[in-house]
């Protein structure tokens, strides 16, 4: 692997705990606080997008390192589900 991609993987690995804490904060905020301000809502959506991006990058590196597609899907299926933006799907499906 190119040294640049190794560095990206290393930095992304350090961002995962931060992304998890940010995700926890987003979940708590969305569950217990009714946000009406569009600026705050946009900030939450941007933070959520950043968290998803960190997880997708990690998933890409896991896919590259996997022995085979079968190995990847058997061992990382939960990671695949976790990066799906389910709230966007619900918004699209709701009338």
How would you explain this protein's 3D organization?
- The chain is mostly helical.
- The chain has five helices and no strands.
- Helix 1 packs across helix 2.
- The longest helix has 30 residues, at 3-32.
- The chain is globular and about 45 Å long.
User: What structural class is derived from the secondary structure elements?
Assistant: mainly alpha
Helix content: over 70%
Report how far apart the termini are. 47 Å
Largest sheet: none
- What is the number of helical segments per DSSP (H or I, 4+ residues)? 5
Count of extended strands: 0
Shape: globular
Element string (H = helix, E = strand): HHHHH
Average pLDDT, to the nearest integer?
88
Give the radius of gyration: 16 Å
Q: Which regions are unreliable across 5 or more consecutive residues at pLDDT < 50?
A: none
- What is the strand content? under 5%
Give the key terms.
83% helix, single chain, globular, mainly alpha, 95 residues, 5 helices
């Amino acid at each position: 692997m190119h040294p640049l991609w190794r560095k990206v993987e290393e930095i992304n690995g350090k961002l995962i705990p931060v992304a998890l804490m940010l995700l926890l904060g987003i979940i708590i905020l969305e569950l217990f606080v009714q946000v009406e301000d569009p600026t705050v809502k946009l900030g939450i959506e941007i933070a959520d997008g950043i968290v998803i991006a960190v997880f997708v990058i990690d998933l890409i590196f896991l896919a590259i390192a996997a022995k085979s597609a079968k190995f990847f899907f058997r061992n990382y299926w939960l990671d695949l589900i976790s990066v799906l933006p389910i709230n966007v799907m619900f918004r699209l499906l709701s009338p």
